[in-house]
Amino acid sequence: MLSHARERRGVRRMRMAKCADIVDRLVAQGGLSQQEYIALLTDYDRSTLDYAAEKARAVREQHFGRGVYLRGLVEVSNICSCGCYYCGLRAQNSRVVRYAMTADEIVGACAQGYEAGLRTFVLQGGQVAGREEFVADVVRKIKSQMPNVAVTLSLGEQPTEVYALWRKAGADRYLLRHESANAELYRAIHPEGMSFENRHRCLAELRGLGYQIGAGFMVGVPGQTPQVLAEEMKLLEQLRPEMVGIGPFIPQSDTPMGGQQSGSVELTLLLLSMIRLVLPEALLPATTALATAGQDGTLQGILAGANVVMPNITPLCYRDKYAIYDGKKSSGSESVEGVALLQQGLETIGYEVDWSRGDHPQFAQE
Ligand code: SAH
Known about the structure:
Helix content is about 45%, strand content about 10%. It is built from 14 helices and nine strands. Bound molecules: S-adenosyl-L-homocysteine (SAH). The site of S-adenosyl-L-homocysteine (SAH) has 18 residues, from loops.
């Protein structure tokens, strides 16, 4: 018995040493082989998380110091024509009370955020056709009324002309998580008609139009093996998006994936650190999903190498209607009312808000 226990301890020590070596190689090379990613994502433990986070913090501090950028998140509408199996806003979910904010409401929410010091606004919503001119108009209004702000859009897959129209209106950045680099997993969580290829076409076109682009994926969707996560890392190595949004998958009870398990907070933190080491200058948010699933998720995310937080500035009357997953946090330090709270939290871990608009370092301020 004793020798068995000793053997197990020995194996664990070997794995830990191996994981630390792999993290060292990631630091040195800015990337790993598929096999190394798989080994790290299979054998990691608490000490690996701490070690990777320490390395990730060192890299983020070289590029960004201890500043954390803020983005005011406006959930402009929960009307969506898509049927993503994981998302509570899917068109087939008849239990959602649908809303679409008016232009005045959106611009007003941003103006309030501007007063509070925010210099980036993220307009996120479901994917619909027919609102192209409306969105362009809102972007123009924000950019003309509020000096030196960046506007980020996150409105799903659109034709090139639409992305071009919005860019011309003044949009600076676009968030469109690729959701999965693995075609099979992508198919398993999306209905027919949605394709991994189209998602990638969109990202390529957005980049061609001069947007700072954001890719990303959920952590812990059923079927996402270490092999698949290694593919996600390889994709990020190649695509090198300016922003990467990741957060644990959290089931929404009115969706086909409502009965599944939530993704792991620890694995999300490890992946955040790994992404920071692959993309030292990336804008990496500690996402709302992380804050929702984890104890002190936002601060944990910052300590793992994230450098962005997105306080929710959606008017209160709409906030609980943007329920992409169950229990979504939108108050406290996750909201604009809570920025002071967030500042206090950041201070306790030795970080502070950076009030600039926080472009990717490769993009000159416009
Ligand atoms: N319609 C936009 C915005 C989608 S919501 C678009 O298509 O890009 C933003 C992100 O929330 C999605 O990209 C997805 O990765 C994430 N998300 C959706 N449902 C989720 C869930 N149940 N748990 C965790 N994250 C989820």
